[in-house]
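Data card: per-record layout.
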Amino acid sequence: MGVGEINHTYSHPPKKSGQVAPLILGLQPSALIDHVAKVDSSLLDRIPGDIGGSIPVAIEDLESILSKVISADDTSPLKTLAGGSVANTIRGLSVGFGVSCGIIGARGDDEQGHVFVSNMLSNEVNLSRLRIKEGPTAQCVCLVDAVGNRTMRPCLLGAVRLQFDELTREDLRGSKWLLMRYAFHNLELKRNAIRLAKQEGVSVSIDLASFEMVRNHRPSLLELLASGDVDLCFANEDEARELLSGEAKDGPEAALDFLAKHCQWAVVTLGPNGSMAKHGEEMVRVPATGETKAVDATGAGDLFASGFLYGLVKGLPLEDCCKVGACSGGAVIRSLGGEVIPENWQWVYKQMNTKGLPVPNRLTLTD
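The structure for this 367-residue chain is written out next.
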């Protein structure tokens, strides 16, 4: 599979005839802004809800949490950036690996919407398929403790989002991959996206989102996988266990085998224990990269997907795809937020070079 010519366009109207479509598109129905901060346990104790969880909050609660973070005697500043699993993966593919990428979704014409646009454009992501709507852009507070664990409070109520009937074949035409995250509340949109992708000859990649999503909406997920329309599926270890919960064999290996029966490529990430992947009869297991201390676990799986997909579009062997994923996934946890900062991309390239993997050349990535 070739990478195709790199071309970046940033206009907001639908792409015009003659423009080269991004190689990879990410479907994120709602643009999202993450407010990320390193905090101590005393502040977490003052936040309603369980530490380490993700509980939806109203805008007033989100603003109250932000005020506590800002006023806290903490040397770590608040970091505000475009967020969301799909956005994290697309941003990594674009700025770190030089693959032409775009986002499909909607954002509000507000301060948060403009921050999302600024962050993604600065990382060379095509936003010509990002709709502008009246209403607020989704936000999330991500509080990171001393060992890198996250406590998340998303504010999604009333946020603008792309509706299922607003997606068109034109959005997908000319691209090779469509990335999305499994979510039951957007399932109608996801099904329509997959249907249109198949009509356009676009391959589909799905991330299983969270073990709670798999647990609570397993029948719909199994139906989606059984359709045979999902070409690549990413799951972490917890999601993999939930996928086959109650079965005689329900561990990561069994889940990998199950996914590989329905998808051309199946990947299960195992945190510090590396990853497993299967394509046809080929199965590989790859260790994690280096002795990286986790500053913030946000985006580890998302950036693993960036590296894996880079390897896939470059035509690398399955094991090497996992190795690249291990490098980029290991890099993002070295700093706050779901994006890899420039010095950590240099760390990625050094790791790749050491392992004999092809380091991206932004000027010649036209295979």
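Known properties of this structure: The longest strand covers residues 101-108. The two ends are 9 Å apart (CA to CA).

See the next section for split statistics.
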